[in-house]
Amino acid sequence: MNSLAEIVRDEITRLGVMPWARFMDLALYHPQHGYYEIKGRVGRKGDYFTSVSVGSLFGELLAFWISEKLKSIPNEVQVIEAGANEGQMALDILNWLQKNRPNIYRRVKYVILEPSLTRRQWQGEMLDAHGSKVRWMSDWQEIPPASVTGVVLSNELLDAFPVEIWRWDATQHRWHEFGVTYQGGRLVWVSTLSAEPYPKSLELFTSSLGAVLPHGYQRELCPAAVSWWHQASSRLAEGWLLTFDYGGSEEDFWMADRSQGSLRGYRKHQAANVLEADSGEVDLTASVNFTSILSIGEDVGLITEFYDRQQIFLMEIVQRWLEAGFELAANQTRALATLTRPELLGTKFKAILQHQPASNNSAAKL
């Protein structure tokens, strides 16, 4: 038994049942033994690919897009990235801006939201050449509301937030939240017997779908992702909030083929048993509910400018890139195909872009 498994076992011994969101938080983010505290998780030799691991083109296209957005905003601007992992996307963005848009580069302060001291060290080593251009903060609490002028971005961040697991009991006509406990020396699923009322997103559909939902129908809810988007939205005084991730609309999660939910595990590019994540060697992820994310931003005044496939978002940037006189080398063309082809990353991932117009009520700048 490794240290993470011991920590999980000790807590379950005290609690009896560990809610899944707590288990997922420990498995992924425990400061010593969590999955993301080990380098090399992403890429060919890791457990999964991201757009960043395809090569530098993804970050370079985003850098071009950022420069186009920020050129009309005078004085200092910020680019805030969350979920930066080892810092590769930040490096690709800053390198491109420094070489191709030095005027923008001089005005940009790059902020990485990173609670992990381990990952901060990786990122610092990666970004050493950019010196004081980069600074770190632990979370949104260090940034005042309406203080950011610029761009907030993330790539495959929201899908890694801990989720709650809810399953429909057709015999009792009610939802149960599920967690984990140990039986016979191994982790098993068990109901936490959560009392009503249920979360609103479940309650609204129960009245209309309860009669037809199959027994054991599973939904994942992610209050942490909703909270993060709300905090990010409220920090913008003027600028854009951009994320890339996989998921769907609220209605998509109630389709018949979603009866087992979207929670899944990966190890060495293969599906893995999520209950083996107490080893610290399994990535855990769940699809993002974009309906809830979009509505949160709009509730605080943001305007949705784009919500569609990554393929479309990137190809629109490429068109402007070419019109601006930049070319695509052979290796960039191959990378672009991976990023945009439907059978690869082009339609698997969605892009969400929301905009906060300039306001006269913004607080002190970050």
Q: Can you count the beta strands?
A: 17
N-to-C CA distance: 45 Å
Beta content comes to 15-25%
Radius of gyration: 21 Å
The largest sheet is: 7 strands, mixed
**Uncertain regions: pLDDT < 50 for 5+ in a row?**
360-364
Global morphology: globular
Mean pLDDT comes to 92
Topology:
Layout: H1 3-15, E1 18-19, H2 20-29, H3 57-70, E2 77-82, H4 88-100, H5 102-107, E3 108-113, H6 117-126, E4 134-137, E5 148-155, E6 164-169, E7 174-183, E8 186-191, H7 200-209, E9 218-221, H8 223-235, E10 236-245, E11 247-248, E12 264-267, E13 270-272, E14 283-285, E15 288-289, H9 290-299, E16 303-309, H10 310-323, H11 330-340, E17 350-356
Parallel strand pairs: 2-3, 2-5, 3-4, 5-10, 11-15
Antiparallel strand pairs: 1-7, 6-7, 6-9, 7-8, 10-17, 12-13, 12-14, 16-17
